[in-house]
Amino acid sequence: MTDFLAACRAAIGAAHVLTDAADTAGYLTDQRGRYTGRALAVLRPADAAEVATLVQLCARHAIPLVPQGGNTGLVLGSVPDQQGNAVVLSLRRLNRIRAVDPVNNTMTVEAGCVLQHLQEQAAAVERLFPLSLAAEGSCTIGGNLSTNAGGTGVLRYGNTRELCLGLEVVTAEGEIISSLKGLRKDNTGYDLRDLFIGAEGTLGIITAAVVKLFPQPRAQLTALVALQTPAQALQLLQQAQARCGSALTGFELMSDFCLQLVCKHFPDQRLPFAHAHPQYVLLELSDNESEDHARTIFETLIGQALEQGLAQDAVIAASLAQSRALWRLRESISMAQAHEGKNIKHDISVPISRIAEFMEVTDSLVQQAAPGCRMVSFGHLGDGNLHYNVSPPVGVADADFLARQGDINRVVHDSVDRFGGSISAEHGLGALKREEILRYKSPVELRLMRAIKQALDPQQLMNPGKVL
């Protein structure tokens, strides 16, 4: 290993080959603080050429490598295992925005760019990069692409895959594939780009991408609507889509217990209603005409829902500050859960039309398996993705509850499968769900996935133990 580390130092500089425990600690523990791996070193290349050199060295010395962006993932996809024979390849220094083309509505960015920086750079040329999620201040676009991240704008703009036009990738052999043309039409054979998006670094390392930009909307309005049931939320979704069309860019479902936790752990936040309601929907409308036009649409939609008894109460943000306050309620749920204690998380999707039935059936099954548990259900109702989380009953120790995780996962995931859904909607599989997926993928799918892995990474060095 001495020769290998010496070659790495020669390639990228000794200051960027981290081996001391104090320097590597932040790279080895997952975002939730539940797991800490071990590594030979943390390598911090500055560009794609240095990444390629390091990958070649890893291949020559048979050293596994774990690519890492902002390390904000939730399925142990960006941290090494306990063997200590791998290196972490941090892409945070690949953080340049190479080009912005407002006419082509594209931006060429390196993998280590923080998502929020992309949003700001797009806004500087009066464009929108619509990917938005709670970790946007620290997650990187390379990680977003590697996990095919979703976020709050999927209803209108699609997952990260739909926002990408081209990639630069370092293969397992240390070769660079560069396809950064920014084309929306290119029918010249297999679309290699789609192999690497969502592969979680198991087939190659994304070092740069061309992403889509959109015109900045002239107005963005937010509303919070109180309802009785998820079934009513689905009815409201249908009406909103019929009235607003593609201007409806966000439709988030949150249970009352979710927002109780937010208000409990963040006392500065308050619900804008006099009384609590069982369910809430946060809607966002992005209008290219004017704020008055958007507000008229929203007022008509919500007024109709109130008249029909579909909605129990509603508030439309009257200012940017009020809009941010409403979104902050939604974005604080995960942190409030963490303050409340450990919980069992599920990032699942089911057909939108079946979400209400799924929640009713599965809530009952989970209560049978763990009586008294508290459901923290929220998520992107408009695209069928729920963060279906389970908190311990009051008085039950976190450790005792987490010991039941396998049983509760089985109840939830089997129910997801029966409803024609997926056990990973936007977080990926990582190491956490690698074995679990074997129950739900067909043998043919698994065989083809393994064949692709073998073809592109014959030494099995790229992010080992993840996905497959």
Give a brief rundown of this model.
With 468 residues, the protein is α+β, with helices and mostly antiparallel strands.
Description:
- The chain has 16 helices and 18 strands.
- It has 468 residues and is of the alpha+beta class.
- The chain folds into four domains: 89 residues, Uridine Diphospho-n-acetylenolpyruvylglucosamine Reductase, domain 2; 119 residues, 2-Layer Sandwich (Uridine Diphospho-n-acetylenolpyruvylglucosamine Reductase, domain 3); 116 residues, Alpha-Beta Plaits (2-Layer Sandwich), CATH 3.30.70.2190; 93 residues, Alpha-Beta Plaits.
- The strands form four sheets. A seven-stranded antiparallel beta sheet has the order 15-12-14-13-17-18-16, sandwiched between helices. A five-stranded antiparallel beta sheet has the order 5-6-10-8-9, with helices on both faces. A four-stranded mixed beta sheet has the order 1-2-4-3, sandwiched between helices.
- The longest helix has 17 residues.
- It is globular and about 75 Å long.
- The two termini are 27 Å apart.
- The mean pLDDT is 95.
Reconstruct the topology from this structure:
Elements: H1 2-12, E1 17-18, H2 21-28, E2 41-43, H3 48-61, E3 65-68, E4 87-90, E5 97-101, E6 106-110, H4 115-124, E7 127-128, H5 141-147, H6 154-157, E8 164-171, E9 176-179, H7 192-196, E10 204-212, E11 214-215, E12 219-227, H8 230-244, E13 248-255, H9 256-265, E14 279-287, H10 291-307, E15 313-316, H11 320-331, H12 333-340, E16 347-349, H13 355-369, E17 374-380, E18 385-391, H14 398-402, H15 405-418, H16 443-456
Parallel strand pairs: 2-4, 3-4
Antiparallel strand pairs: 1-2, 5-6, 6-10, 7-11, 8-9, 8-10, 12-14, 12-15, 13-14, 13-17, 16-18, 17-18
